[in-house]
Amino acid sequence: MILSIDIGGTNTHGVLMDDGKVKSAHTVEGKEPGDVRDCFGILSKKAGNEGFGLVLTGGGARKMQPADFPVPFRAIDEIEAIGAGGELLSGRKDIFVVSIGTGTAFVSVRGGRCEHVGGTGVGGGTIHGLSGLMLGLDPDGAEEAARGAGGNLDITVGDIVGGSLGRIPSHATASNFGRARRGSGGPEAASSLLTMIAESIGVMAFFAAKTRGQEGSILICGRVAINKIIKEKIVYTIGMFGGKASIPKDAEFCAAMGAAVLGSKGRG
Fold it and tell me: Is the pTM of this model over 0.85?
């Protein structure tokens, strides 16, 4: 068995895997060493008396010291972990992984090779920061508010040109927050905020994937991918341009799962 922990810029995700399958998974809201040890403690109890190897990945892995755990650990490169997790979750060797954490990373996987294509600072941290700054809400509150919105504060393509524009439908966004004025807020602002973030990631993901000829095989992963509004809008945006995206079960544990696979093979 392998206990794998992905230490991100905001949260900590861990999995206990046995023979390539998830036996248990857990997320801790936090990224500090104490949060990581909490995640380890919960998952190690799931292992019972069975022995396991420990691997760490993510930007926070470098902060951890051998003395933090009762067993030795190996650090796994985050990009390699995202790629391996994408292969495992998709069952494909040719896949473009969009990992949405605090920010967003684009990883092309082909023939067993992972390539970091790039990314964007727009991600879960953006939702958290702007939801608090603009709406006084946490991300869950922003999602709940957006569900109750009767519309949003955006200007559509149809508003400007009177209809569709090539493959872009009339209801597509031409200007995020284009209708907003001083004092605008409430559910409509929440809807526009999540739309802006989802569409920004979706557009960038499509064109990044297209540079690698993988726009038809995009896999969306990371904790933000379980936000229903975000995931629906990202998948729709990618499809609007002619791409195809999917969001697998256990999407938030992609990097942790990939690190476990690599760790079991002595790679990473």
Answer: yes
